[in-house]
Amino acid sequence: MSLATEVQTRIPRHLLISMAVLVLAALGLSIYAWHVRKTVVATPTAPVNAGSLAPPVAGPTERVTLFVAHDEDGTLRAESALIPMPSGRQQRAEEVLQALVARYQGKSSPHALGPGSEVRSVFLVDPGAAVIDLNAAFADTHRSGVLVEELMITSLIQTIAANTPGILKVKVLVDGKERDTLAGHADLTDFYDVSAVNQLAVQLQSTQ
Amino acid sequence: MRWTRVRRSAGTARGCPTLSPGVGEGWDRVTRSGGLGRQMLQALIPFLLCSLLLSGAPADKYLSVYSVAANYSVPIVQREGRDYVGLLELLEPLGRVNAKAEGVRWRLRFNNVEGMFFLGKTHAHVQDRDADLIGKFLMENKRGLVPVAALSSLLPRILGGPVTLHEQSDRLFVGSVGTHFTAALSGDNPPRLVLHFSAPVNPTIANEPGALRMTFSREPVVAPASPTLTFGNKTIPSAIFSETRGAAVLTVNSNIPVMATFGGDGRTITVAPTAATAQVATVTNPANPTSTGTNPAPATTTAATPNPAQRRYFAVIDASHGGDDRGETLNSSLFEKDVTVALARSLRQELESRGITALILRDSDANLTLDQRAIFANADHAAIYIALHAASSGRGVRVYTALLPVGDDDRGPFRSWTTAQRPSLPLSQSTATAIAAELQKRQVPVRALAAPLRPLNNIIGPAIAIELAPQGSDVTQLTAPDYQQLVTSAVATAIVSAHDALGGAQ
User: Fold this and answer.
1) CATH topology for B178-277?
2) Among B209, B190, B210, B187, which Cα is nearest to B278's?
3) Which residues pair with B182 in a beta bridge?
């Protein structure tokens, strides 16, 4: 008796058919899974938002003054904006700078910032000192030049000082550390005197 | 190898790599350990191997190699009308290297990089990519020889970093290891040429009639922006930098015998007339520009006890950035640091043509920290410090004065470093205003601003910075001599007009 005949004799015919159907089904599912996986890999993923995720700010909307750098004529111009403001003083200072950075990252930005640029945090230290902590992308991708760098520094300091009363001096850090310059020119090693920056802001509001 | 300065801990002077019988399978390996006898043997074997292998080489031709790991030289041999070097001995001080000859093929392994070379072929495979050797690959006693001319393209593939070959002078720089220097003439009677190097140097010095020659064989000294440095002085009129036969040579031309002295941990060399000639020069040249008519100091007294507060130059011009700090990248081939040097030279010429003595703080592609710039300007007691910048943004010229930070108060005779500029700020501002007015007269768009720009706040005397931007959108205008001269002549004219006020402030 041959081996095939012996198997047919011992295993019922309906079981053999069931097994064959199951094998075919498994094979079909494998092919389908492979096809689905290939399709998923080929589909481009949506760009990941490099900005930080933060819960929506709770608080009433307030009108704030942003001092915005304009590269085309090298001036600093005051603009008003309506933004939701939290109640805490430090959170308010952070929120107003986030609004300023968002202004620079908008489509019609007068002073483009590199991708991923953001203000990491703001610390208010009594008496009258503020520390602005930028991320590395902010400084690394910023344009180099005396005027373009001082426009940005003045924009940050003037904006925080105008909207947060009591700030007398400001220090700028990058990634939590002291850095020599923003992008090769504007000094970041010392505290800025807000009253001196205020006078500079007046100079920068004129093209002369 | 003729000379070696190995910076890594295991480094000792070594010769060519030796064949290690224990390695087997034809791999050549560098031997590194052993007792005193073995070390002597190791020292002897490479020498004999080098002599045997490179017997056809001219005895006096070497390739000087400068790297972070070691400074050394390897022999160059002439084959088929080209200069060749042994690749194994070239790479040995730079990392773990071994090689294996397989018939006409020569397999090289350097750290994790593998290369395959073929006898008589002008190309090789490095990391499975073709590499052009310019000339044929040669093997002698299982040693691979490659043309020197191919090293600038071949070695970056093997070492994974930039390599600069000065083929005419047989000098090879692995990575950014160049030692830069600045040259400044200080004092007129007698003059002293002060050379500041970015790393310690120890040249061999030879006195020749009319010149003092410094030969840097072991140091990666590189050329300044211009190989000829002129100082506008009758005693030490110029210095010439050249490279030849694996060494850098700086020749200081002088009309009287001079001698060199070392200082600053080997980073400073001062060239000055010998004691006898200095006295003669002082007596025969009494027109000391720093002596005033109302207080004529005897010439001999000036030479014997120099006044440390004596002003040597009226204006110190600082070409900002330099060396590793390129400043703004103005376009793909133009850096701010290069524009500022050209601008500084133009300004010096304009000032000197108006009778104002001026010193360029950085007249080569040297690294200078902001503190060094401030210290030099303060030590010189210049009447005006002018920092030069260039930018692609904006139009025309910006003249800056210091935006002083929140700093410590002065304590007694000690002035706060961060706000040292405070007493001179009004004079700096009036000078900036005068320069802006002069530029406006010449139809150049100009703004006068404060700026948080170091080292302006660290300078004791009047200090300004000038940022030059193109008048239109073409950034190459920054390199145009006529545009530079238009600006520098206006600046020089304004400084001349402020001469009395500036001079009186010192």
Assistant:
1) Immunoglobulin-like (2.60.40)
2) B190
3) B196
Tally of domains in chain A: 2
Cα end-to-end distance, chain A, whole Å: 109
Q: What b/e string do you get for B426-441 counting C-beta neighbours within 10 Å, with b at 16 or more?
A: ebbbebbebbbebbee
Residues lower than pLDDT 50 in chain B: 5-37, 47-48, 50-59, 276-311
pTM for this structure?
A: 0.54
B398 touches chain A (CB under 8 A): yes
pLDDT score at B129: 84
Out of A169, A187, A197, name the one closest to residue B454 (CB): A187
B372 touches chain A (CB under 8 A): no
Residue A51 lies in a domain: no
Give CATH 3.30.457.10 domain extents, chain B. Answer: 4-174
The rounded distance, in Å, linking the Cα atoms of B363 and B317 is 10
Same domain, A107 and A35: no
Other CB atoms within 10 Å distance of the CB of residue B396? 18
B175 and B162 Cβ atoms separated by less than 8 Å: yes
pLDDT at B29: 38
Q: Is the ipTM of this complex over 0.90?
A: no
- Nearest by CB: A187 against B389, B449, B453: B453
One domain for residues A82 and A139: yes
Q: Report pLDDT digits (tens) over A21-58.
A: 999 999 999 999 998 888 776 655 544 444 455 555 66
Say how far apart CA A156 and CA B45 lie, in whole Å: 67
pLDDT for B425 equals 93
Q: Identify whether residues A88 and A160 lie together within a single domain.
A: yes
**Residue A189 and residue B454: Cβ atoms within 8 Å?**
yes
Residue A102 Cα, gap to closest chain B Cα (Å): 22
More confident residue, A7 or B152: B152
Strand, coil or helix: what is B24? coil
Nearest by CB to A200, from B393, B418, B450: name it: B450
What integer pLDDT is reported at residue B69 of this predicted model? 78
Range of the structural domain that residue A175 is part of:
61-204
Q: Which of A74, A185, A203 sits opposite B450 (nearest CB)?
A: A203
CA of A47 vs chain B CAs: smallest distance (Å): 29
Helices (H) and strands (E) in chain A, counts: 6, 6
Nearest to B393 among A143, A191, A197 (CB): A143
Identify from A187, A200, A204, A205 which residue to disrupt to test chain B contact, counting B C-beta atoms within 10 A and taking the largest count. Answer: A187
- At position A8, the amino acid (one-letter code) is Q
The B residues from 303 to 342 touching A (CB cutoff 8 Å) are 321, 325, 327-329, 336
Distance separating alpha carbons of residues B26 and B490, to the nearest angstrom: 73
What is the fold of B4-174? Copper Amine Oxidase; Chain A, domain 1 (3.30.457)
**B307-506 CATH pick, 2.60.40.1180, 3.40.630.40, 3.40.50.10580, 3.40.50.1240:** 3.40.630.40
Residue A109 and residue A196 share a domain: yes
| Position A54 in a domain | no
β-strands B446-451, B397-402: how paired?
parallel
Q: How far is A150 from chain B (nearest CA, A)?
A: 7
For A148-192, the pLDDT digits (tens) are 999 999 999 999 999 999 999 999 999 999 999 999 999 999 999
- Provide the residue type at B216 as one letter: F
How far is A111 from chain B, CA to nearest CA, in Å? 11
- Res A102 pLDDT > 90: yes
Domain with CATH 2.60.40.3470 in chain B: 178-277
